[in-house]
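Reading a protein record of the kind used here takes only a little practice. An example makes this concrete, so a full record is given next.
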Amino acid sequence: MKFKSTRGGSEVLTFEEAVLRGYAPDGGMIVPATIPCIERGTLRQWAARNLTFPQLCEEIFALFIDEEEMPRADLRALLQSCFGEFTDDEIVPIKHLAPRHATEAGSGFEFDVAELFHGPTLAFKDLGLQFIGHMFEYLVRKRQRKLSIIVATSGDTGSAAIHCVKGRQNMNIFVLLPGQGRIAELQERQMTTVLDKNVFSIAVDGTSDDADVAVKGVFADPEFVEKYGVCTINSPNWARIMMQLVHFFYAYLRVCPECDREIVFSIPSGGFGNGFSGYLTKRMGLPVKYFIPAVNDNDTLHRFFAHGELAPSDVVVKTISPAMDINVPYNIERLLYYLSGENAEKVREWMTHLEQSPNGKVKFDEELMAKARALYRSASATQQEVKAGIEFSHRIYDYVFCPHTAIAFLAAQKAHQQGEEAPIVVAATAHPAKFVDTVEEVLRKVNADYSLPVPPQLAGIRERETRCLQWARPADWADVWTRDLQSLVTLSYQSG
């Protein structure tokens, strides 16, 4: 399998190059040259074999990784080592929820939850990033060179990225996180309490969207990127998209082992990586009726589907679901590429306009939007609605959602109320304990003694030593942060 850019650059990439670069050389997103097809009969065979999560990863990844680049035996061994720190043997357990009492049946509905949060940092990002950490180690040994990994995070990606890289030889990681209390305390501490010498946490006076600008600024210098082995493991990285394909297939095979009907997925959405991965699974042959990308008050994505206009807001609203506090759902570039009939010229025009124009916006034609709306039915929720959703799910189902997953639950509930009869799977993207202050505040209004159990990954984290650089926001903050990041990468690379 080869890979290409959404913006039409002529360079064709191998899988190894796609993973190590993150972004395409022309600034676009990396996509596969062709989308493989999985027949319904193959799905039934996988269901009959009752494949484990790592086994299903192997079957799907082999469609994108040529044997010449990575022998199947090496891929299998790598996948067998990826999930050692996950606390559930299933890796992604599927829980069926129904109202606890018959008298409450009218208040709720039956659905399934795909728990994606059993990794070392309690977020779905662990699935892709544990794989990337092991893959990078494999490629570093193969290439005999160092890597400088830069990441912008809205909360969960940073800690998962740090955890997959910490302590590894010939890799340094630099994580830009929103400072000034813009993310949950435990999210921040999951990053700043990691003291390994190859880990650099940097709190910027800005949002994750601002941090993305600085990261893209580094990638705008291809000579620097090549010299210092710079790569990113944000969701633009193809390996993360590829891993996210698997949990859709896995959930489907558990919920519909006969493979005889379509289902609906409701997904908390920020950068839209999960949402785009879902699109690819449908193109590959997974029987999905549609996807529900569910957003918070930062609703650029919802407005895109509702009004056919991509118009990021000027201000990122701080919410109780901080990992979704994103105004630029950058993976939508990949979706636009396919919805436009792989028209790279149009994609380059649209994205360049958004990147270079203050308050830029793009209006899309009805033909493209009709395709988008056939695939997605977006939803949004206010912070008060999210709190009500957390309380409702605990009362009716005896199940506690994190503030991100609660938004996807509310969207699924709305679909059911509007008459949806297909099975619905809610993607649970983070453990509620990561947002203990919000969850306990909500549930203690009903039960003053309620206390959320602390998972071992978070035990004692408030008492641990922290280390974090603090970057202020000068008038020319984007250029300054990019230069400072390049300086830090250079110094760390040269010092070993």
